[in-house]
Structure formats: structure tokens, C-alpha cells
Amino acid sequence: MDQELQTLLAELYEEGQRNDAQEQERRKKRLNLEPETAQLLSVLVRSGKRTRLLEIGTSNGYSTIWLAWAAHSTGGSVVSIDREEEKHRLADANLRRAGLREVVQLVQGDATSIVAELTGPFDFVFFDADRFSAPAQLKLLLPKLTPDVLVLADNARSHPEEIAAYLATVQQLPKFEHMVLPVGKGLSLAYRQG
Fold first, then answer.
1. What is the pLDDT of residues 34-85, one digit of tens each?
2. What span, in angstroms and rounded, lies between the C-alpha atoms of 174 and 180?
3. What's the total number of domains in the chain?
4. Which of 67, 96, 145, 158 could pair with 185 as two cysteines, CB 3.0-4.6 Å apart?
5. Is 132 within a domain?
6. Whole-angstrom Cα distance, residue 148 to residue 80?
């Protein structure tokens, strides 16, 4: 990753931290990934040569840029979903600043409804939005996943009550190995080998 992109990511992360410290309304917070979690996602995409990425929870595009940069190096692309129009606009502008807009399909609206309409297949799925609807979204996505797939979710340690149903759903999936990594706010990682 070149220095210019690293600088942009650091700027976006710091701006997100400042915004979240001042903003009281949850839906207006950026709630960006921790940098080490974002970097790990990027490494997983590149090392596994993942090309069909789905991100649920775009926010201002911080994590989306990490995923798009990794997908660009594998010849892949990202579909990223967010409910909030303002966050969609911010992500679009930030992806353009990063020179990665063409790698990402931004979709605005209710993630569960959108996931139901997606065709896939996806070989990498990252949940970083409403943890309560993630189990239903995962069930909708199962037939749209490649045989060899990574399914990840943030906040596995920081929001244990909110993510409990998702973790229970993942642990019951046949043929998936699952673990929670002590990175950032806790990263749930499920892998099915093709």
C-alpha cells in the first residue's frame, strides 16, 4: 500500500474517531473498524486470493477502502451495503479519493432486503452493521457462498449480547471452522474449505 493511501486511511480513521466522540446519535457515528482489524481483513483477502467480497456496513468507506485495495490486487470486487444515505455519499467520495471507486458497488438500503436479492457467489463476507439482523442475513447468504469461503463479523467481544445470536448461528453451520480472534473489538472468523 502506497504512502498516499495510508495517509488517507489514517485521516479517515482519525476523523471517524473525532466524529464519534462528539456525535450522540448512533446512526450518525462512523464506528470505523480498528486499523489492525482492517489490515487483517486485507491480508485475508489477498492471501486467500478472494475476489467476490460482500461488506454489510459501509459507513464512511474506511473498511471498504481496505477491502477494495485488497480486492484490486486479486482482480476482485466488493459489494458494500449501508442503510444511511449520508454514509453512502461519504463512502463514494472517499473511495474516489482513494482511486478505488471502480472496484466497489455501493448499495444503499435495508441490508436484509438487499441480501435477499443478491445473486453471488461470494467468497468473502464481512458483517459490520446491525448485529441483530446478521443471523437472518447469513441464512439468506448461505446458498450464495462459494464452497471455499470466509465469513467474518466485527464486535465479537465488544458487544457480546448483541452478537450472541449471530455467533450461535455461525457455530451451527456445517463444515465451517469458527473462532473469535482477539483483534480490535473481536473478530469472528468462520471458514469453510472448498
1. 999 999 999 999 999 999 999 999 999 999 999 999 999 999 999 999 999 9
2. 17
3. 1
4. 158
5. yes
6. 20
